[in-house]
User: Which sequence fits this backbone?
């Protein structure tokens, strides 16, 4: 059995509180720099002023940089559709006698198969597709069940991995950063020494990072052309470059931006941005979603000795 | 009993206790000679990319008997034979050769179509495992014969029964063929090397140690200072908690799922691993396996990880798993051919039987 240590639940947060107080007096420069990254702090109401000041300086640091370690997730519907959208009966529809109705394969899911609304995460609202690429996107959406790599439990690529409904955990030290995603056990090794162009394309690409002040800038290249941005069929080519900006708004909130450059698909570079939230409490633990076995009936069911009726 | 005799007995008991954990004592000595660096959290720094590729295996081949260490001549022989295998396996394969013409035995247990792996595709290591410089005959050090203890009465070694219906359904295939885990016990625990991709990356934060296992991009999340789950759920790779003891990371894993049983043990299995940095490029890895419902006694072993210059590349197994579809399709084609053959045989039988029955055989 392990020796009795403080544990990672109550003790951890108590320690954090103490650290907040300890750091508060010497946090002036940190508070300034966290404001300096250009993201407005939420306005503090009078009763919370003291706490807010402490929070502004309470960003944990490791190796001189903000410490992103922890379990994070978005609270948005970007994985359904990164563009602004209203709720809908389904992503894939077919003509009905009066209005379009869900595609046959989705009907049984009822409200579970319908799309929750979202304000979108694309700056300016619309993705600047080339005309032929827009046609492909629209066709993708019509056939998303057959084509969305998530349906087959394929690795999600970047940026999509960051805003799926499942959380991810960042494990960071003074020299290393690892991002481990719950979905499909996807993982990214964030490289602080640029090894040069990746020798081969991959699903999650190659992530090379540098710190710009308190912002982590990660350039992701060498992703293959098989991942999508969402379930709505938004896609890219194999020549895409993603530049991510990660910065702490406060100790429990990350601001995430991704600039997408892919001249084969888009008329100009475009950005998405969103907030990510730290999971707190005893259940803030990354689970496993090894979905490969969950899609075997879908992918190989017709190859059974006796296919199910 | 005189004092001298008592002292001698006490010393014998101590020596015996030390011998029982001789491996770990050696590890501690090695750790003492080297000052392991601490990371920014004040923890022993284990970060980096590591490999456990080696020619040494978990269980000691019987020819070494009770010897933990290999002689210099044995090391030369093992490493030399491997070098020859690698050289032979790197020779170009004649494209005209059919699978039936391939050698029946081409080393490492491969034969026939299995010989299609040229050496370039595999990476099982080229050297005998050294622990604190000592070349080892096996990872297991306790029992002293370097082999797994016998199973408890009534417990049998897992056989191939679970694959009796191979090819009938995807679920009848191995976890590796389904891209659910590596084909050996790469992620463990116990983490064991195999034919290739024996690479691991360790990352540490204040409350977590993450071990990325190349196959199949599995990540072991070790929760520091946490307690084992008590909800009865058994996640992949079990439920790992950890703590630091001086220069050593201790990881204790329970709640193993049946799917990834270790030599048949899962329900009451507990694996304790100890990671100690013993050199700039070496981590001593020690393990103890306990499962009172499978073995009457625990068993232990050790090896060293060495630092790897490269980084881990993505092992996207499922995404490229055309083989599973191919195997199942092949099995269905075999089914169809067998059905066709049976039909033809039945037809022949009917044709052959018909004249006798009707007595109208043409002359």
Assistant:
């Amino acid at each position: 059995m392990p020796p009795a240590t403080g544990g990672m639940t109550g003790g951890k947060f108590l320690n954090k509180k103490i650290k907040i107080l300890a750091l508060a007096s010497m946090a002036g420069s940190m508070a300034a720099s966290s404001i300096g990254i250009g993201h407005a702090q939420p306005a503090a109401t009078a009763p919370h002023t003291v706490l807010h000041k402490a929070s502004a300086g309470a960003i944990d640091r490791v190796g001189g940089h903000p410490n992103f370690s922890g379990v994070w997730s978005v609270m948005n519907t970007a994985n359904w559709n990164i563009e602004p959208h209203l709720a809908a009966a389904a992503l894939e529809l077919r003509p009905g006698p009066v209005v379009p109705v869900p595609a046959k394969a989705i009907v049984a899911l009822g409200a579970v198969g319908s799309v929750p609304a979202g304000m979108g995460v694309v700056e300016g609202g619309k993705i600047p597709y080339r005309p032929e690429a827009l046609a492909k996107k629209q066709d993708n959406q019509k056939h998303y069940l057959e084509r969305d790599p998530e349906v087959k439990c394929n690795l999600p690529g970047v940026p999509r991995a960051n805003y799926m409904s499942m959380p991810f955990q960042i494990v960071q030290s003074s020299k290393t950063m690892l991002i481990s995603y719950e979905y499909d056990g996807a993982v990214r090794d964030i490289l602080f020494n640029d090894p040069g162009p990746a020798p081969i394309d991959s699903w999650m690409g190659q992530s090379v990072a540098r710190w710009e002040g308190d912002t982590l800038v990660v350039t992701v290249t060498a992703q293959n052309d098989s991942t999508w941005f969402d379930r709505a069929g938004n896609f890219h080519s194999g020549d895409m470059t993603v530049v991510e900006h990660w910065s702490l708004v406060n100790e429990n909130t990350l601001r995430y931006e991704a600039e997408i450059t892919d001249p084969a698909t888009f008329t100009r570079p475009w950005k998405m941005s969103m907030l990510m939230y730290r999971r707190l409490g005893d259940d803030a633990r990354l689970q496993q979603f090894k979905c490969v076995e969950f899609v075997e009936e879908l992918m190989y069911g017709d190859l059974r000795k006796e296919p199910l009726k | 009993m005189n004092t001298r005799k008592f002292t001698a007995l006490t010393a014998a008991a101590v020596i015996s206790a030390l011998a029982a954990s001789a491996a770990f004592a050696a590890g501690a000595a090695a750790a003492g000679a080297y000052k392991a660096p601490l990371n920014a959290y004040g923890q022993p720094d284990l970060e980096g990319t590591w490999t456990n590729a080696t020619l040494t295996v978990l269980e000691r081949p019987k020819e070494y008997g009770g010897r933990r260490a290999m002689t210099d001549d044995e090391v030369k022989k093992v490493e030399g034979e491997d070098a020859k295998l690698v050289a032979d396996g790197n020779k170009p394969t004649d494209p005209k050769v059919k699978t039936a013409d391939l050698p029946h035995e081409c080393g490492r247990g491969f034969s026939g179509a299995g010989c299609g792996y040229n050496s370039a595709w595999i990476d099982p290591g080229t050297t005998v495992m050294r622990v604190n410089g000592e070349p080892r005959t096996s990872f297991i050090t306790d029992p002293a014969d370097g082999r797994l203890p016998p199973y408890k009465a009534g417990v049998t070694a897992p056989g191939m029964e679970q694959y009796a219906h191979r090819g009938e359904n995807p679920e009848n295939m191995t976890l590796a063929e389904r891209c659910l885990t590596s084909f050996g016990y790469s992620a463990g625990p116990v983490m064991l090397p195999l034919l290739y991709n024996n690479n691991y990356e360790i990352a540490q934060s204040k409350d977590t140690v993450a071990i990325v296992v190349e196959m199949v991009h599995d990540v072991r999340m070790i929760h520091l200072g946490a307690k084992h789950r008590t909800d009865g759920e058994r996640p992949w790779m079990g439920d790992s908690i950890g703590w630091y003891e001086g220069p050593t990371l201790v990881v204790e894993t329970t709640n193993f799922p049946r799917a990834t049983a270790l030599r048949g043990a899962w329900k009451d299995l507990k694996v304790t691993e100890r990671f100690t940095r013993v050199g700039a490029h070496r981590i001593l890895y020690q393990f103890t396996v306990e499962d009172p419902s499978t073995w009457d006694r625990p068993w232990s072993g050790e090896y060293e990880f060495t630092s790897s210059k490269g980084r881990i590349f993505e092992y996207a197994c499922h995404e490229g798993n055309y083989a599973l579809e191919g195997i199942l399709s092949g099995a269905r084609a075999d089914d169809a051919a067998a059905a066709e053959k049976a039909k033809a045989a039945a037809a022949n039988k009917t044709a052959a039987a018909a004249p006798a029955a009707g007595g109208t055989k043409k002359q």
